Amino acid sequence: MAIEKMSLVNIAGLMDELDATLKRCCESGCFHIEPAGNSPDSAMKPLSEKNEYDRPLKELAQLSAQLGITLKETDFTDCDLSAPQDFNSLFEKYNTPFSELNTKRLELTQRISELGGAVRQIDHLKGMHSDFQQLFSMKYVSVRIGKLPVDNLPKLDYYDENFFFVPFETGKSFCWGMYFVPERDKQRVDDIFHSMYFERIRIPSYVSGDADEALEKLKQTIDADTVENAKINEQINELAAKAEPELQKAFSKMRFIHDTFDLRRNAAALNDKFYLKGFIPEKEKDRFDKLFEDMRSVSVVYLPPDADASCEPPTVLKNNFLTRPFTMLVEMYGLPEYKGYNPTAFVAITYTLLFGIMFGDLGQGLLIVLGGLALKKKLGAKISGLVTRLGISSMIFGTLYGSFFGYEELLDPVFENIGLDFLPLKVFKQTNFILITAVAIGVALIVISMILNIYIGFKNKDYEKAIFGCNGIAGLVFYSSVAVGLVGTLMFDVKVMSTPFVIFLIVIPLVCIFCRTPFSIAVKYKQWRLSEDEEKMTVGNFIVENFFEMFEFLLSYVSNTMSFLRVGGFVLSHAGMMLVVMTLMEMCSAAAQPFVLVLGNLFVMVMEGMIVAIQIIRLEFYEIFSRFYEGGGKPFEPVGVKFTSQTE
């Protein structure tokens, strides 16, 4: 897999053609714009114009939201509006009647809410037959209506004050009623009731009659206001239905004009000329040229991608059908630089292989494949494709393990009939083989990662990385030699670790790694220096710094290799969890066994499937990617109008 080749594009023309040029760049769908005129030596200066469509765009979006219109991208070819004042006129056309109706609606809603509160308050005072207005108009006596905690009701008898309390309704926690007190004593009595947690109810001034009459009048008023409010809502809905087609087209067109105008900030100008620059994929040259054939004042010039040192070419990963879904994993770590290495194919192979090994089950893998295909619209093509490929890998290794929804013996007759005695692989009977194989896979992947690092290092003429680094030739020789020596000695009882073997394949590579910086400088510059900045590096500092780095390198070799034990661990874990499911099923009645089998398989698929997927990402990023891959690339972002109803 490779990285798409790019071309640097310089576009120049008359200022009158700038908007039309930007529009065609957006329509191309392949132009990655770069700020022009950002060089201090350039005579052309960037444009810094205020976008006059900002306010109309926000107003139209706000009005649509208030009318309950969900904005969506709409064909606006027959929309004649273009200038900001045109969109302002359209806004006023519908905003004026809506504002009048909305004001009435808000007033009615507020009044209904207030009346409802009054009803809830007065409902507790049904036993009162006095007129509210007469009660509150008394000159020498004050009246307080409210609720008192039931526990405090007997305490009123202990106070020798000039008041009396009239209860109307007593519930479990509160007693609603009112007390009368002479005007001259109200402050002292109010303090007493306040200390007993009396909560006063404020009766609105418009309430008249006794409690029953007041309730009836309030409910009639609420009913009338509710009917009126429903009529206003209906009128607003009619207005929205009438306005929606026009607002949809107007907003879509204004969004296009607004976003295209924003791109002017990337253009530079000198007198009556404009200048744009950006990148397009090399394969799009002919199609891009045709967009400007009828614009004689506009010239389009193509240059090599590295012709302008002020801008870095963007990265587009070039992948085939099989590996494309795994692009998202590479993007999670970071895109490679334009001249870097595209690891998508390597990730696709290793991720698929590791998932199948760690989650091998023919039946569960089949469900994963079917689930990925069924949820393609909901998950998206990339995730669906990734899930489908992982499911196929799970099916393949599930067949090798002889596992079908936890039934480990189901496929045995199949292998016996075709004469494969060593299959299926019984997990619990070959535990050591599985763990050793997991470590061997880890060693192989680490070695391949080092080879990739060497290739990338030579490609970029980075000799420290390619030859002397811990992941270069020196690191590869050291790691491979130690691995071969340990395997030969411990597993095959072959004395590989001879003196020449240790000196030439272990000690010398370690010395190269330790002195990687001065060795690489000697190769590159034909002179001996301890570091690129020799003034800041003494011999003592060099020894101490590289000693600890060597310790870190050696530790990483061990830890990274041992990390792959988790591959074998999850093989055993998956088989163990399914064994638990089968045991529980056998303990249940015949009627319950199918439910236990289905629920158990679903639980294992969801829980262990997610854990395995995350663990493989960890292996990819920490044990594999860290040895050869560097992100830092710039994503390819072609200009265009990304329609959204949100405005800044």
TrEMBL record:
The chain crosses the membrane at residues 351-375, 387-407, 433-456, 468-492, 498-519, 564-584, 596-617. It is found in: Membrane. It is a multi-pass membrane protein. Keywords: Ion transport, Membrane, Transmembrane, Transmembrane helix, Transport. The keyword Membrane applies. The keyword Transmembrane applies. GO terms for molecular function: ATPase binding; proton-transporting ATPase activity, rotational mechanism. It comes from the Bacteria. It holds the Pfam family V_ATPase_I. GO terms for biological process: vacuolar acidification. Belongs to the V-ATPase 116 kDa subunit family. This is ATPase. It comes from Hominimerdicola aceti.
